[in-house]
Amino acid sequence: MVWSSFIRSPIQNMNKIRFLLPKITAKNGINPTQVCHSGSMVITASRWQWHKTKDTIHFYLMVAGIPITLLITYANVFVGPATLTKTPEGYEPKYWEYFRHPISRWMARNFFDNPQKDYEKNLAAIYEETQLMKVRALEQKVWNLQKERQDYKYNYFLPYDTFGLRQFRELVKRQVDGME
C-alpha cells in the first residue's frame, strides 16, 4: 500500500462536504477554480506502443491480406482445380502440371526446383561423400600400415602443385623441338 493512499481518503471526504466550508479567496479577490473533479489523477502506463502496433498490423493486413484473399478467391472461383485428361502421345508433362490447385502450380513453376533436379543433386552429394569416405579409409589404412611396419611417416611428404612443372616441361619440349 502506498502512503499517499492514507491521505487520499480524508481529502476525498473533504471534497464531499466542501460546500459547507466558507469559500477561500485569493489575495487578489478571485476565487480559485477546481480543475478536476476528484482532486486526484490516476497514473497509467502509456498505450502508445499498443496503438502503434495495432495500426501497423491493420495497415499490413490491408496492404497484403486483402489482395492475397482476392487472388485466392479468383483462383478458386474462376480457374478452379485441375482435372485429369488423357495426354497426347509423346508428350511428357512438366513437373508443375502434376499439382491440382492453380496457386500450387504457379508456385511450383516459379519458385520451387524440379524434384528430379533436387533428387539428382542429392545423389551427387551422396556420391561425393562416399568417395571422400573411401579416401579417408585409404589414408587410415596407409597410416596403420606405416605404423605397423615402422615405415616413414606419410605426413612428412609435402604435396606440391605440378601445374608449373608441367608448363615448364612443355616449354622445354617446344624449345627442343624448335632446335631440331
Salient structural properties:
180 residues, mainly alpha, 5 helices, extended, transmembrane, respiratory chain, mitochondrion, membrane, transport
Outline the secondary-structure elements.
Elements lengths: L3 H13 L31 H32 L22 H9 L4 H35 L13 H17 L1
What general form does the structure show? extended
The residue fraction in helices comes out at: 55-70%
The total beta strand count reads 0
Quaternary state of the chains:
single chain
Into which percentage range does the β-strand content fall? under 5%
pLDDT < 50 stretches? none
In short:
By secondary structure, the chain is mainly α. It has helices at residues 4-16, 48-79, 102-110, 115-149, 163-179.
Write up this protein.
By secondary structure, this protein is mainly alpha-helical. The protein is 59% helix and 0% strand. It has helices at 4-16, 48-79, 102-110, 115-149, 163-179. The longest helix has 35 residues, at 115-149. The chain is extended, with a radius of gyration of 43 Å. Complex I is composed of 45 different subunits.
